Amino acid sequence: MYWRSGRYAEAERFNGWALRVAEEVGDPKEADDLYFLKAQILHSTGRYAESVRLLEEILPRRQRRPANAETIQVQAALGHSYNLLGHHAEAEPLLRQAFELSQDSVGPAIRILTVSNLLYCLVCQGTAEGFLGEAEAALELGEYTITANLRLNLALAYSRLGRWDEAARHYRMLAEGAFDPNYSCIAWAKLASIGAERPEAAIDKAMELYLQAETPAARFIVLQSALSHGSPAQKSWALGELKRFDPAPLPWLFRGEYDELRARFLGSS
Questions:
Q1: Dihedral of alpha carbons 110, 126, 44, 159, sign
Q2: Three-class SS of residue 79?
Q3: Coil, helix or strand for 215?
Q4: How many C-beta neighbours within 10 Å does residue 195 have?
Q5: pLDDT, tens digit, for every residue of 165-217?
Q6: How far apart are CA 205 and CA 100, in angstroms?
Q7: pLDDT tens, 223-241?
Q8: pTM score
Q9: CA-to-CA distance for 31 and 104, rounded, in angstroms?
């Protein structure tokens, strides 16, 4: 629950405690499940290489069993972590296989997960347009915590294609109803940057969520929006934050944008 609600420090603390218990009682399957959650927490907080190492250990053990929801989840998570590092050639085959496997005998939440992660991979490679219909259809499977992730990736895909109205539709739903403050924070910042809301008011809402947002991407997107579309006071605040911002945990997709933002507002130093 802590992980799903974006409270990663608490999630990591309780996960570590549970892992120690599982190892003490000698329950390898429970330990694997907890290591999987640890990998999810690691990639949420920008430690993608650590996440990959854990998932690469877990996946072969899961693949010895018949394909099921747990195996598909690990495969989809590993593919996603590869994407966050920029290793798309390794990610795409894993994610396509996870997507195909999810079409049979698993619940709708796992199917949404595989669609969302594959869509993100295609966004990274600039090839998402042909998959948008499949992704929109997956929203009809129901509202789960993972559905917000699919909405975010759809909004991202539409933004990159310049389809602003469709992007704004998804960002508004996230801004007003996301359980995870990281999603709401990104959504308000993006609504400001695409001109779908009054920029200064939307940035104010994003700034209110900034300290609750623990993902590196969410914080960066707020700074990006405030510096480009904010009031003088908002720009001043964002400039101070940008000077302290650590780009190392940023996903591959935003590394170039960070370099451009820093060069524009802080020079080449």
A1: negative
A2: helix
A3: coil
A4: 12
A5: 999 999 999 998 878 899 999 999 999 999 988 999 999 999 999 988 888 99
A6: 39
A7: 999 999 999 999 999 999 9
A8: 0.89
A9: 27
